[in-house]
Design a protein that fits this description.
- Helices cover 67% and strands 0% of the residues.
- It contains five helices and no strands.
- The longest helix is centred in the C-terminal third of the chain and has 24 residues.
- It is an all-alpha fold.
- It folds into two domains: 94 residues, Orthogonal Bundle (Helicase, Ruva Protein, domain 3); 31 residues.
């Protein structure tokens, strides 16, 4: 019984941390902060493993200019990232998209944890 209480406590902590991580996303109040945030999400087209914010390559400067133009035009972050992904390919984003196959990359670990918890629960009941 004590193990079950401990398990519930840890489960509650994991859920609370997950909720805090989702709710506590940084707000982007100004267009400059939006641009800076978006620049960290896009990979330099001609560099390896650098964001356009970190690179001074010509292609990075072009992507930065595109981001600024689209932010000033009033496009949403999703629209901007989708446009850049269409222009440069899916590997230009530093994090996987949350649509299509990208959902599997985000949901996969959660499914594995849920299965592990379910198996542990059933083994404890026996």
């Amino acid at each position: 019984m004590k193990l079950l209480t401990s398990f519930r406590l840890w489960l509650a902590v994991v859920v609370a941390v997950g909720i805090i991580a989702v709710v506590d996303t940084p707000s982007t109040a100004t267009w400059q902060s939006r641009v800076a945030h978006l620049e960290t999400l896009v990979k330099c087209p001609s560099c390896q493993d650098l964001s356009v914010a970190q690179s001074n390559a010509t292609s990075s400067l072009a992507v930065r200019h595109e981001i600024v133009t689209m932010v000033k035009a009033g496009d949403s972050d999703t629209q901007i990232l989708t446009t850049i992904e269409r222009a440069y390919g899916p590997s230009v984003l530093l994090s996987p998209s949350v649509g299509g196959l990208g959902v599997l990359l985000w949901a996969g670990p959660l499914v594995v944890v849920a299965l592990a918890v379910s198996i542990a629960w059933r083994l404890r009941r026996r």
